[in-house]
Amino acid sequence: MAEIKKTILWVEDEQELVKVYSEIVSLIPGVKVEFVGLGQLALNKIKEMEAGKEQVPDLIMLDLLLPDINGNQILQVIRNTPKVKDVPVFVLTNYGGEQMEKEMTQNMKAEKYLIKTEWGPKKLIPLIEKKLKLK
After folding, report:
1. Which of 84, 75, 132 is nearest to 109 (CA)?
2. pLDDT per position as a tens digit, 28-73
3. Mapped to the 3 state alphabet, what secondary structure does the chain carry?
4. Is residue 27 in a domain?
5. Which residues, including other chains, have CB under 8 Å from residue 86's CB and lie 6 or more apart?
6. Number of domains, the chain
7. Domain of 76?
8. Contact 7, 128 (CB under 8 A)
């Protein structure tokens, strides 16, 4: 078993996708992923990180369309929370559109805005590995 070097907090509510993503990320040695399916759970984690009770991840993967809280609200909280404000966030969503992409990347400082249908598992692995400096 590879030593855990990097961690990812992945906010995704679609269970089928969680299954697929967890399988692909398990192929990357040294990476630990924690999936949360609700925005409120993600916000709770961020509070715990700020309080020093949770490890700050190296990367946050964030879906925008969640059953309880919109992902852009979560991103706003991330950017306004000192301990996690500099964590890179990749928005991974089905919600396309230039305006939304511009809002997320320029105004809210998401590092990447990825459309799920264009960024399947095979394309995501190299992107994650590069960001986490594993390759």
Report:
1. 75
2. 888 999 999 999 999 999 999 999 999 999 999 999 999 999 999 9
3. CCCCCEEEEEECCCHHHHHHHHHHHCCCCCEEEEEECCHHHHHHHHHHHHCCCCCCCCEEEECCCCCCCCHHHHHHHHHCCCCCCCCCEEEEECCCCHHHHHHHHHHCCCCEEEECCCCCHHHHHHHHHHHCCCC
4. yes
5. none
6. 1
7. 6-131
8. no
CATH number for position 52: 3.40.50.2300
Find out whether 67 and 38 touch, Cβ atoms under 8 Å: yes
CA angle 82, 67, 38 (to 5 degrees): 45
- Written as one letter, the residue type at 95 is Y
Q: Which residues, including other chains, have CB under 8 Å from residue 116's CB and lie 6 or more apart?
A: 17, 92, 93, 94
Of how many residues is the chain composed? 135
pLDDT tens-place string over residues 89-131: 999 998 888 888 888 889 889 999 999 989 888 899 899 999 9
Gap between the Cα atoms of 119 and 48, Å rounded: 30
β-strand 6-11 against 89-93: which pairing, if any? unpaired
